[in-house]
Design brief:
Blueprint lengths: L21 H26 L5 H8 L2 H7 L4 H16 L1 H11 L1 E2 L2 E2 L11 H21 L7 H27 L3 E2 L2 E2 L3 H32 L4 H21 L4 H12 L5 H9 L2 H9 L1
Antiparallel strand pairs: 1-2, 3-4
Helix pairs in contact: 1-2, 1-4, 1-6, 6-9, 6-10, 7-8, 9-10, 10-11
Length: 285
Amino acid sequence: MRADVPPLTHTPELDVPAWVPEPVAQCARAKYAAEVRWAYVEIIRECEPNTSRDEARHLAEQDGVRAAYAEIVREDLADIVEEYRPLVCDQRMRGVWRELTRQRKGGFLHPARAPSAADAKERQDAAMVELFDTALECQGSHEAITTRGKAEQQSDRYLAKAEELRDDALTMLEQPLLFCGKDLLSDNRRHGLSRKLEDAADVYKEYARAIHTAAQFSMPQREHDARAHWVALTIGNKFRDLFGKPMYGLTATIASVVLGREIDPRTARQWCAHHPAVKKQKIVR
């Protein structure tokens, strides 16, 4: 079976369709090239432990060196290509870019709010690149997104740590450390150390409360929905930051491409609309 696999003599190219906006295409190519180079750097350093990282970076730029290591990194390169391909090549993304570049009465239908760009087109281009970056991070992130039950467990664990720190603070405050009949710590020093533990306990308690709030309002109960929920919420929030609205239809489209399964716009709306940050914005308005 191995004989049927042709040797890899060059790095697989990332084919970017012509319908991808040029700023997004440039971003995709640059990030892809950087990840490929990093894969070669890691392999070179693994095979040649005495090679410094700077030397490995220099070697990773050379075609001959890449050809020598190509077979070793074949699977890594395939994984990188598969990470980029959906967001770059999926026809559903064509609809996203088309919608974000639509114009009406001389301006964009969905104008971006990037304050650093000089004109409307630069703002729109910068926003699309940032949106692509966010989606790509979601595509490459396989962290376990916690469900409501797991969040509550984590909250309880932090509360238990806070309680333990408070007990230690009390012990530190009341238990003398005698040496030759003299306490090694002055009252001020003892109170200072105890206060530090109290402050650390407050941090644990505050974080536990935040987890509990997030679990109640924005985390799914089923593990199956956890990652999908997180992806949709992340992309919806990015739309809100960039364009002033979550754009649930486009959020659902990008989430569907990232996840490899269909997310209904109504589901994306439900997930995003029930997030505490969204409710806070509505109250402020």
